[in-house]
Every structure is written in structure tokens, then in C-alpha cells.
């Protein structure tokens, strides 16, 4: 569940990460933490399972 740490000075609601984690869990994806852009903050990557990845033109269609 989402909760905000008392005394936090950051802007925004912080709900984005909670929503992304919930969606990733529901579809079997993994949510990873990375370095933020321009050395600011942190970033997140969602690794989708194969069933959610688009097929390329070279891949045969089922």
C-alpha cells in the first residue's frame, strides 16, 4: 500500500510508483530501479513478460 513518510519535502503525490508496481505485479512484470536522468533522482524500468511484448515484422505470427 501507498503511504507518505512524514516530513518528506518532495513534490508530487508519489502515487505513480505505487500504481506502476501494482500494474507490474498484476501482469507478471518486474519493476526495477535505475539511476535518474541527468544524475537527478532515480528512474524505474518495467520489464514486461514475453506475452506483452510487441512482435517484430520478422517474427512469425501464431
Automatic annotation (TrEMBL):
Keywords associated with the record: Kinase, Transferase
Q: Does the keyword Kinase apply?
A: yes
Instruction: Extract the GO molecular function terms from the UniProt entry.
Output: kinase activity
InterPro entries per record: HATPase_C_sf
Superkingdom of origin organism: Bacteria
What is this protein identified as? Answer: Two-component sensor histidine kinase
